[in-house]
Amino acid sequence: MNFTPFIAFLILLEQCFHSSDRSSLTQKVILTPEELELFRNVKDTDIEEIYPLGSVILMVFTLAVAINWTVGRYWRHPYRRGMGWAHLISVMIFTALLYTRHTSMEFHKGNPEYEEIENDEDEENDENSLVYLFALLVLIFGLAIDWCFSNTTKKRISVSHSQTSHKRHLAERLLVGQGLLGEDELERHLPQKNLRIFIATWNMNGKKDLPERLDDFLFPSGGESAQDLYVIGVQEGCPYRQEWEYRLKLTLGDRYVLLHSAAHGVLYLSLFIRRDLAWFCSEVECSTVTTRFFPMIKTKGAVAASFTFFGTSFLFINAHFAAGDSKVKQRIQNYEKIIKNLQLPKNVPDTNPIYSDPDDATSRFDEVFWFGDFNFRLSKSRSEVDSILENLPENDMRSLLQYDQLSEEVTKGSIFKGFKEGEIHFRPTYRFNIGSDDYDTSKKQRTPSYTDRVMYKSRTFYNGTKKRTNIKDNK
């Protein structure tokens, strides 16, 4: 259960039941002559009065939290939007009633006429308290129903999924026995029994002017270096996602088809596979995770896709972690949130569930590729890094990588447990002046770093047709 909305409610309830002490939620303002007429006993020299600004702030904060929580929890599931509207309306009613009472008490405080009738309104205040209590009970009751409904649904889905997985497993065995996914097909389409995969990651910084073709990007070693599967991840993507995918397809040619395309805000993920191999892929499933406080803001987080190919399961994750030289802890938290909240696989069964961890999505697949803008920096100043770069031997980056934050955290075991990375023989990919090969010359003078990375891992067992996978470094 998500307890986010209760934080705001606890604050509001505290103010409701302790509204006689409001010193921490008020500010002093100068009243206009018209406002002074409302207070007959106020002296000319005493023109300050308390105004309940804190109540307004609390109301806006409560509504913001309620809307954020409702959208994140319910709007992804159309059949639950009715419950979301009920929660949101109850929050709005409760907040409005509380604000009205709070403001009324503050506005009339010190007014002799109001104090004379205050005692006569005890019964009315009791009725108001009952209204507040009723609105709160409605919200709690709705949350309880939703919690029970969610758990019941999960149990049903779990049973159904288990049965479906068992049936699919039997079906796959039958297909393999008949030769459709057997060794004969594998030998015919992949004689070397190697699935060659090209992984690319690019922070486009919202780039709008796309090149007509992307040969240098997709074929860094020439056309003869074409691979079987192309997986391209983009962060801060261009506004024209369809145009971007069209340029990729145009460059790859008719030999490849778009296996799957997914997006999470400005995070794009595109998978192109050889046309003759597409028939042997299972249904491609997708999941997204946002690492922002407000789920509507989708500039940081992850988009992932998974499928099985000749009995081997694959997971591809395109991620963008928190920026900032010193935000190592936040980046680790981004990683932990993603592996915990990625809802994959969904319908396609786990090929080896005995090795799976319910809190780690990457443990449920045979081959995992995690790439993107991880934003880990070099723990040196700009001048020190520039000095190292000037005296850097060709293709030997060890003098730089010894200061790499990501390498240090991987060694500690705090992130990317079990993952590996290809050898880095290229200079830092961050950050260049737009349209040039010169590192940042702006006022910020950002330190060159290896922010764009490709990580991978495999399960430590042999799984039928599972073979060695070639890795292409990102440049």
What are the SSEs and their pairings?
Elements: H1 4-17, E1 27-30, H2 33-36, E2 48-51, H3 53-74, H4 81-108, H5 112-118, H6 122-178, H7 183-189, E3 195-203, H8 215-218, E4 229-235, H9 241-252, E5 256-264, E6 267-274, E7 285-290, E8 301-309, E9 312-320, H10 328-341, E10 367-373, H11 382-390, H12 398-401, H13 405-412, E11 420-421, E12 452-458, E13 469-470
Parallel strand pairs: 3-4, 3-13, 9-10
Antiparallel strand pairs: 1-2, 4-6, 5-6, 7-8, 8-9, 10-12, 11-12
Q: What does this 3D model show about the protein?
A:
The chain is built from 13 helices and 13 strands. A hairpin with a 2-residue loop joins strand 8 (301-309) and strand 9 (312-320). The longest helix has 57 residues, at 122-178. A six-stranded mixed beta sheet has the order 7-8-9-10-12-11, covered by helices on one side. The protein has a five-stranded mixed beta sheet with strand order 5-6-4-3-13, with helices on one face. A two-stranded antiparallel ribbon has the order 1-2. It has helices spanning 4-17, 33-36, 53-74, 81-108, 112-118, 122-178, 183-189, 215-218, 241-252, 328-341, 382-390, 398-401, 405-412; strands spanning 27-30, 48-51, 195-203, 229-235, 256-264, 267-274, 285-290, 301-309, 312-320, 367-373, 420-421, 452-458, 469-470. The chain is globular. It has 475 residues and is of the alpha+beta class. Residues 18-31, 42-51, 114-118, 153-180 and 461-475 have low confidence and may be disordered. The protein has two domains: 4-153; 181-470, Deoxyribonuclease I, Chain A. The two termini are 42 Å apart. The chain crosses the membrane at residues 50-71, 83-100, 130-149, 256-273, 302-323. Residues 193-475 form the Inositol polyphosphate-related phosphatase domain. One of its GO terms (molecular function) is inositol-polyphosphate 5-phosphatase activity.
